[in-house]
Amino acid sequence: xxxxxRDLNVWFGSVHALTDVTMDIPANxxxxxxxxxxSGKSTFLRTLNRLNELKPNFRMTGDVRLSGADINKTxxxxxxxxxxxxxxxxxxxxxSVFDNVAYGPKMHGVRTxxxxxxxxxxxxxxxxxxxxxxxxxxxxxxxxxxxxxxxxCMARTLAVEPExxxxxxxxxxxxxxxxxxxEDTMLRLKANYTLVLVTNNVHQASRVxxxxxxFLSGRLIELDDTDKIFTAPSDKRTEDYIGGRFx
Length: 247
Ligand SMILES: Nc1ncnc2c1ncn2[C@@H]1O[C@H](COP(=O)(O)OP(=O)(O)O)[C@@H](O)[C@H]1O
Ligand SMILES: [Mg+2]
Description:
Rossmann fold
């Protein structure tokens, strides 16, 4: 298992955001995470690379392991290098396309321009953006389209060679064609990475996720093969949510 979670509970002050979450996340798959607003999806995702720690009054109990190692006993910078994150709104740095992708590797000590170029090319190819930007690596990232900027953010994450990539509603601001490109990219990436995709669009989970987890009110209601979740869920609440009866 890439991640193993046992009895995870998370609080922000008096808000009990996650309750007794136990699950395993296998390597080289896409785990879809669905559920209505405020069901704990982002909190769950942010637990995996300890981003919740940046919020005030955060407290957690339980056990979260990455490849068997307790994440709370792992150096946090190393953890966040291994577990990268792509957010809902593409937020490229106010730098060129090249420098956006080279930023992480530079921070991690990659000094030579030759090595930086190799990494940038590899990461942009993995994010299926290379062909669209290879002739304008020096232009500001802000000049790219929204969909291209989101794939640039994926390339930025890929540049530091993560094991896991977390996505928090990565297509919520994108048109259908850009969304299809992101989904296609995710499907190709799972050969080499483990992906966790929080989506407010259940159809997106049904298109790309191998397994799907349904959260409600901070609890994991059901986690199963995506086909099973969408055709014969075990829990009535899953069926009602998928069927559009709430949320
Ligand atoms: N920093 C915070 N302080 C207080 N409550 C928070 C904080 N972050 C999240 N929450 C609460 O935790 C619950 C789960 O939120 P979240 O994980 O963002 O849900 P989702 O991503 O499914 O919409 C919500 O009730 C939300 O208000
Ligand atoms: Mg959220």
